[in-house]
Design brief:
Nitrilase/N-carbamoyl-D-aminoacid amidohydrolase; alpha/beta; Amidohydrolase; single chain; Nit1/2_C-N_Hydrolase; about 30% strand; about 280 residues; six-stranded mixed β-sheet; 6 helices
Length: about 280
Amino acid sequence: MTRFIAACVQVNSRDNMEDNLARAAIYARDAHAAGARLISFPENVSMMSFGGEKVRAAAFAEDAHPALAFFRDLAAELESTLVVGSLHVSVPGEDRVANRCYVIGLDGQVMTSYDKIHMFDVDLANGESYRESKTFRPGDAARLVETKQAKIGLAICYDVRFPHLFRDYAKAGAEILTVPAAFTRTTGQAHWHTLLRARAIETGCFVIAAAQCGDHPGDRQTFGHSLIIDPWGVVLADGGAEPGFITAEIDLERVNEVRAMVPSLRNDHAYRPVS
């Protein structure tokens, strides 16, 4: 399959899991009706809680996670590949939880999962402060998965600021990079489009980035603007600031065309590190 329709579902998740899942499913079914067979959801799609204690209280073990069961059923219903941006998953023996992305196949089976590697521990100039590492255990492994549609490299939100991860995916054969996110409005306005377009251009991959939008518990604000970007850095679809979904046609031949025009993945040259 070289051509297919991909979609991003954009939502405003809050602290009611049942309601969050129901809303995400509405947009996913609408995207499927529009032809999408690869559907991506944002980071924290099932729950946006404020504060470490609330996050831990709303986490579940993987084999008992109601949101994972929900998305497995949805994938089978739609006979589509789902990239479930992230769920909060309990980790045995850990006080912290995993921020875990799942890829679910057409039969409803989990194909692979990826734990967010880079933790958003920052203090912004406007007074916003984040310490993800206090609540979330960072992952330690990249994940590349071959779905019916394409070879996909997985990342989550803040990972987008670490380009070596995406270059490694491209060199390993990735054709699509997914970056589900709950990007803050402050940093999103400044950097979201630029970072994602750069990752597409650097790797010659399509980038599919489903995003949270709007206001959330704890006065948190996210940027929205889910994006589907082609390997030349062209934005094919932009979700704007409101909940909904976007679609775009993915032509995997475009990956080969762009990499032939600018073969930067082959032009790497060894050098001595800075001393």
